[in-house]
Amino acid sequence: MSGIDRIMTLSPVIPVLVVHDLAHARPIAEALVAGGLRVLEVTLRTPIALDVIAEMAKVEGAVVGAGTVLNEADLDASIKAGAGFIVSPGLTDALGKAAIARNIPFLPGIANAGDIMRGLELGFNRFKFFPAEASGGIKALQALAAPFGAARFCPTGGIDQMRAPEWLALPAVRCIGGSWLVPPGTPDVIEIRNRAADAAALRKH
Ligand code: 3PG
Predict the structure, then answer these.
(1) Is the CB of 158 under 6 A from ligand 1?
(2) Which domain holds residue 93?
(3) What ligand 1 atom has the least distance to the C-alpha of 89?
């Protein structure tokens, strides 16, 4: 099992996190892990994201990665901050090759057959299907998965607790991602833990 495959099987849902205040990092990560979600994707969409990765990586049990990684510079900064895996919304050859060279688990984004073929050529067969609902939803992923038997996916984008079971029922889906676990604003840790527990209960691996 590859590094990214192991991470994708740790829990059924990967919370996609946009954290604006460094003081929120630890409480959010602790609440998610307490609820049963260990794999956390911190998006590089806020100026403090790298510090958030470093802070969350200190939480026992958390497997913290960087999301919204767009290029080699983002990749290296994320690894330096302590990211244990890397997620990107799309795939470029340069980023894919850099991830292989750094030997870091990498989940590249794909939205069509050409993206998947480029990923396979680079040696990847685990992908983020993004943006999942806007790219055609379940029907689109089923159609895409058919010709690529070895590929497995983490659909993300527009999915919530209600929609999650349908996605997780697909054989080609290893896990799903989503931002619904942590509502914006000051974290309500009880609410986050409850949402995480509901998500963690969706499917046992
Ligand atoms: C991502 O970067 O993966 C998405 O922004 C998450 O999508 P969602 O907010 O619709 O869950």
Answers:
(1) yes
(2) 3-198
(3) 2
